[in-house]
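Q: Predict the bound structure with iron/sulfur cluster.
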Amino acid sequence: MAKEQKKEMSEKEVKEKCLCTSCPSYVDCKERGFCRSSSSKSKCIKKEQGCLCPACPVEQAMGYTRVFYCTRGNDIEQSNKK
Ligand code: SF4
Ligand code: SF4
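A: Predicted complex:
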């Protein structure tokens, strides 16, 4: 099977590595991995109080460069704004 570069990590892998649950902005409603293209914004995180995404291994592996995916939308949604 050919391997594509920067292929999205599986949802399971993202959820395992995601740092959101340790983030000061995080409100627990059983969500995380907001950066993935199939994810949507959080239903319960409304206040931006710091973001751990720049330190996350998922963000580095995927080549993402944004922050606050939980309140601003996943990587694709944020790149479509402007
Ligand atoms: S980059 Fe942010 S949203 Fe994505 S998995 Fe890491 S901590 Fe979670
Ligand atoms: S996306 Fe960023 S701000 Fe939102 S909970 Fe995850 S680490 Fe925190």
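A: The pocket of iron/sulfur cluster (ligand 1) is lined by residues 14, 18-20, 32-35, 52-53, 56, 58-59, 69 (CB under 6 Å).
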